[in-house]
Write a structure and sequence with these properties.
The protein has 104 residues and is an alpha/beta fold. Strands 1-3-2-4-5 form a five-stranded mixed beta sheet, covered by helices on one side. α2 links the parallel β2 and β3.
C-alpha cells in the first residue's frame, strides 16, 4: 500500500534523505488506475531504499501547484530535494524501474 503524501506531510518525506517518488493521481483517472498495481509492486521492490507515495490531486492543491502538475498521472522522481526526472502518463514498469534506479 502506497504512502499517502499530502500538502501537510510532504516536507517530512523530502527531508528524510531517501530518494522520493510521488505519483500524482485522482480516483476518476483511468490511466492512474492502470499504473496503480505497478506502483504497488515498486513500493515492495524498493522498500528501504526509496520512499514511494501517492498524492491525490483532488484532496491536495499546494503540491500539484508547486510542481506544475497539469496532467495525471504524473510521477516525480526527487533526489536531494530536487526533481531529477518525471513521467507524465502511464508507462511500462521497466520505465519506472529505470528512473528509480537512476536515483540510487
Amino acid at each position: 500500500m502506497a504512502l499517502e503524501i499530502t500538502d501537510q506531510n510532504f516536507e517530512g518525506y523530502l527531508q528524510d534523505g531517501k530518494p522520493l517518488v510521488v505519483d500524482f493521481w485522482a480516483t476518476w483517472c483511468g490511466p492512474c488506475k492502470m499504473i496503480a498495481p505497478i506502483i504497488d509492486e515498486l513500493i515492495t521492490e524498493y522498500e528501504g531504499k526509496v520512499t514511494i507515495g501517492k498524492c491525490d490531486v483532488d484532496e491536495n492543491s499546494e503540491l500539484p501547484a508547486k510542481y506544475g502538475i497539469r496532467n495525471i498521472p504524473t510521477i516525480l522522481f526527487i533526489k536531494n530535494g530536487e526533481v531529477v526526472d518525471k513521467q507524465v502518463g502511464a508507462a511500462q514498469k521497466s520505465a519506472f524501474k529505470a528512473k528509480i534506479d537512476s536515483l540510487l
